[in-house]
Amino acid sequence: MSSYVNDVIERTKEKNPAQPEFIQAVSEVLYSIEPALNIHPEYKDAALLERIVEPERVVMFRVPWVDDSGKVHVNRGYRVQFNSALGPYKGGLRLHPSVNLSIIKFLGFEQIFKNSLTTLPMGGGKGGCDFDPKGKSDAEVMRFCQSFMSELFRHIGADTDVPAGDIGTGAREIGYMYGQYKKLKNEFVGVLTGKGISFGGSLARTQATGFGLIYFVQEYLKTQKDSFDGKRVCISGSGNVAIYAAQKAQDLGAKVVTMSDSTGWINDEDGIDIELMKQIKEVERGRVSDYAKQRSNCKYQDGRGVWSVKCDIALPCATQNELLIDDAKDLAKNGCKVVAEGANMPTTLDATEFLQSAGIIFIPGKASNAGGVATSGLEMSQNSERLSWTFEQVNQKLQGIMRNIFEAADSAAMMAQGIV
Ligand code: NDP
After folding, report:
1. Which residue among 192, 261, 322 has the greatest number of ligand 1 atoms within 8 angstroms of its CB, and so is best to mutate?
2. pTM strictly above 0.85
3. How do 124-129 and 72-83 pair as beta strands?
4. Which residues fall within 8 angstroms of residue 24, CB to CB, at 6 or more apart?
5. Mean pLDDT of 143-156
6. Which of 32, 333, 352, 358 maximizes the CB count within 10 A of its CB?
7. DSSP helix/strand/coil, 19
8. Which among 117, 128, 105, 174 is positioned nearest to 370, based on CA atoms?
């Protein structure tokens, strides 16, 4: 490892104690760009790495809200505006009890590189709150979202910072937040993406991250004169990314045999019934255990275990650090050929190194899940023009963007290996 990379990582650790996810993301990126640093010694003179690891701005704020019984709750909100070199800050809002500054900083840091890969004019940012929407009534979620936006609105704007969805933040939450923003600012502008179709949302945004992940892997498979047809695919998670990755993989002839949530996982040897999964997860807000009850050949188990099932392609689509070293060993033992990240940083650093050393193609989320933010960029363009493109128009642009990202990543990987 170069002493410059080492020094910056050590100083980042000293300045950011108790932020393990952020340090992990910084280490992963800095190690991987060493070949570029070796060719460009001037980057060190310009303190490029020191600038990249320091957010431009961090906002932390109180979010008080009242539940249905009249009890007051107080959560902590965040917006990390990491880097605006290429355009307005852009990145999602995560609502999950695990949210803390380390997690939001790691996500904001990764977002810089992902957004630049799309070649759209977007900087990197991320935000969220340690609020758990699970088990809350619509009215409680609405009061929380309104309170959250009552502070966030002063830090964002269509040309400043454009948040979107992430874990726990879907169309319902974005709708409540957008309504509050409009009320406070008296402006109908593209300040949030992931909006409902009737008030400025883009067709194909819901599908974009999952579809984009599959388009990316498809580009890789083409280079091997191969395709999804007949492949066994293991997917973790059962949220937005997981569902649409499963749908597109099966459309292309694969069989998706696993999915999960934070309580347990399922193995459906008949292949996931996508419409049933959507009904349970998107409409009824149920669990994967409810899905298993309605399928004769589907096994449900509590806890984790998705990566123990034999597959050709593994797609972690739930959350950070969900694919551990022992999972990587199981995947290798079972003949898995490709691991492509749908979630952000789902693979631990040691598991990543193991997969790469075992000759398994490892595709990092910064490239493979960029379809979501790319389509958010397309939603921003439509909002600026006051136009709505068709599903097929957006889907085609998404496919083109994923193809370009694959080509950029592929040629960078070859350059790093000294092949070109
Ligand atoms: P959702 O909230 O729609 O779904 C998340 C899924 O992961 C759910 O099945 C959830 O289970 C599961 N999950 C969440 N936390 C944990 C945990 N700690 N342990 C086990 N399972 C967990 O989120 P998304 O699908 O939108 O996001 C998934 C990942 O993809 C995240 O890493 C996100 O940052 C990333 N991503 C999302 C994009 C998007 O456009 N949505 C874009 C790019 C990246 P449960 O229901 O039990 O909580």
Report:
1. 261
2. yes
3. antiparallel
4. 106, 321, 345, 348, 349
5. 98
6. 352
7. coil
8. 117
